[in-house]
Every structure is written in structure tokens, then in C-alpha cells.
Amino acid sequence: MKANQHSEKFGCLTSAGRVWAVSCIHGDADRLTDLHSLLRKRWQQGDRLVYLGNYLGHGTNIKGVLDELLQFRIDRLTLPGMQPEDIVFLRGAQEEMWRKLLQIQLATEPSVVFDWMIEHGIGSTLEAYGESEQGVRGYFREGILATTRWTSRLRETIQSHPGHNDILISLRRAAYTEQGELLFVHAGIDPSRPVTEQSDTFWWGNGFFDKIDAPYSGFRKVIRGYDRDHSGVTETDFTVSLDSGCGFGGPLSAACFTLDGEIDDLISTR
Fold this sequence. Notes:
Largest sheet: 6 strands, mixed
């Protein structure tokens, strides 16, 4: 992949000395704040930052997470040499569901789609923005016009919180260092397909990540933030998984990578 060739879909980290990757947060604003406090002390000039998705869902302070992400982004961008593209937010499964929810009036069976979303944790995000599962189901019963009016109001609600919509519309599918050393994804990647031809494997994994047993497309390491088993920080010759269960009672983890794929520093909150 050439630098910035697909900038609307992928983040390209240029002139990176090291890259910090933050695992899934799942609405746990307190642990994110603690992690940022530690990260400030360990930051070095030339560091870059990737958040690996799932800011929404499951936890109890989703709006607090987005506020903290915005504040820390401003904090880092005040440092000498930092540019907006040096901090990348990936789209996780929760954000992909949220995007689909805002278009749910187009679904053939909205209630069936919504059932699946509720099973996968979207209820916490609805509550954060003043909605309820029961209320949403009422709009479905009223029909497509009522549902459309509701999704429009929900967009307006998000936009009323400064910066929240800015994050959600800026999300990238994956991120990579400019010379192709490191690739950052949310949940997984299909090693039989190029990065630009992946489908929903980015968000759902589909069991491919654990089967990577050779360098993928020349990348020295593929790093992901979500593991459905929340197995903690695990590393193979070609991959690193960082999900320690934040939002499900576990800590929030972040790892700092050198361009040769080695973990140079590791933070895990309690």
C-alpha cells in the first residue's frame, strides 16, 4: 500500500519512531483516563497513536470515553511535530453496528437486526444517548417513517455532543506505517486477501487471525485490539493481540511498537 493512497479508508502513520496501540475500551472511561495518565509519562518524540476500536458498547460511561479521547487527542497535538494524521481511530465492531443502526430503517427486518445488535452490546450505547431498547422497538412497530424520524433524531443527539460525531465519521478500517512495517486492525484480517479487499473481517475476525503463520503482505507484525475471548496481551512471530477485557471487568492495555515489530513498552491499567 502506498502512503495516503486510500486515506479515506486507512490511516497511514508517517515518520513514526514508535507506535502506541490502545486496545478496546468498551465504555470504561475511568480506565481510559488512567491509561492516558500513564501514557503521558512514557511518550517519546516521534511516537504515533492508534486506537483499535470499540469505544462504544457494554460499559457505563460511553460519552465519557469519547470526551476523553477528544481531550487526549488535543493534548498530543500540542506537542512539537505532531500532525492530525499521527493519531488514528479505527472502527470497531461496536462502531460498525452503530453505523448500521443509524440506517436501520433500510433493513428488510429491522427488529431482527436489532435483536442481534442488542445481543452484541449496543444497548449501553443507546442508553448513553438517552434511548431505550423498548422505545426503539416501538418505532419499529410504528413503521418505516417513524423509524426514519427516530434515526434522524438520534444523529442530531450525537451531533449535540461536541466532537462525538467528528470521531465517529473519522474512523478508519485499518492503519499502517508508511513503509509497511506494521498493520493495525480491530479484530482480524483474512490473510488470503489484500488489505484493500477485506470485507467485515476487520470487525468480526471470522477466526482468521489465529491462523496467521507467516508474514502478511510484507508486514512484520499485525496488531489487533479485539479478541472475543479477552485473552490479554498475546504475541506470535507475526501477530500481537491486546484485548485484556476492558469493559468486561478487565484492564485496558496499550503496547508501544518499534518499526521492527517488537514491543518496546506495555501499559495495563487496573
